[in-house]
Amino acid sequence: MTRTTTAGRIGLAVAVFALLVFTLFPVYWMVSTALDPNAITRGSDVLPSGISGEHFSYIFDRGNFGQFLTNSLIVGLGTILVSGLLALFAAVAVARFRFRFRTSVLIMVLIVQMVPLEALVIPLFLQMRDYELLNSLIGLTVVYIALSLPFAIWTLRGFVATVPKEVEEAAYLDGCSWPRMFWSVLLPLVAPGLVATSVFAFITAWNEFVFAYTFMKDGSKYTAAVGLFQFFGENSTSWGPVMAGSTLITLPVLVFFIIVQRRLASGLAAGAVKG
């Protein structure tokens, strides 16, 4: 067994401290600038000139940011619910049933995952235009569902495939129907994978900018990521409102991650060994 020296422990502590500074300093800068009443003239000062909530009041009173956050929440929750449900059923289908072109379907799902998002903007824009879903939160939700499904299907397929068929057969012998077996047996076993894919879907929908900016023309239907763009002027930027909006955009993702982090960690660990 290798014994850690004093110099090694000090080096490890310094490395951890440097890593924390490197990762947390941008967050500190964002929050402190949001609270700085003189944010636009702060420059490179490490400490803010004071503490004030005027930038948060400004983005709600004059920036309509409450409406943008509501739109993002609607789109994010819709994406989680629908993509999670569709991905779970699709994963069960490709993992449990044998049908023609099954392998081809899996390969096509994987290919879609590899296509750059920027290459899909124009084709999806034309599709949404033909379906009259441009400038619509429903249309934007449909796009995010499509973007989230390939990753979710591939991830959940691994979880479903590793559930022993004997467990399902035992449920059938006890008199369970397929819906009862699915709800009471299969769903609890793949729940960690469902949480992991839900986090991915929520972050995709919440932070996405290009599709939301391209598809939405009505200012009242902007998502938070697009609404933040209004504080960037042609010749200047209102850094206080920008950082206040960025702080508010970060909070829901942080809260959602804290709520599901236990199941997310177990889901990712299980997926790593079960894949």
TrEMBL record:
Presence of keyword Cell cycle: no
InterPro entries membership: BP-dep_ABC_trans_perm (IPR050901), MetI-like (IPR000515), MetI-like_sf (IPR035906)
Annotated compartments: Cell membrane
Biological processes per GO annotation: transmembrane transport
Start and end residues of each ABC transmembrane type-1 domain: 69-260
Classification via CDD domains: TM_PBP2 (cd06261)
Tagged with keyword Cell division: no
Membrane topology: Multi-pass membrane protein
SUPFAM superfamilies in alphabetical order: MetI-like
A GO CC term assigned to this protein in UniProt: plasma membrane
Bilayer-crossing regions: 12-31, 73-93, 105-126, 138-160, 181-206, 239-260
Protein keywords: Cell membrane, Membrane, Transmembrane, Transmembrane helix, Transport
Family (UniProt): Belongs to the binding-protein-dependent transport system permease family.
PANTHER family xref list: INNER MEMBRANE ABC TRANSPORTER PERMEASE PROTEIN YCJP, MALTOSE TRANSPORT SYSTEM PERMEASE-RELATED
Identification of the protein by name: Sugar ABC transporter permease
Lineage: Bacteria, Bacillati, Actinomycetota, Actinomycetes, Kitasatosporales
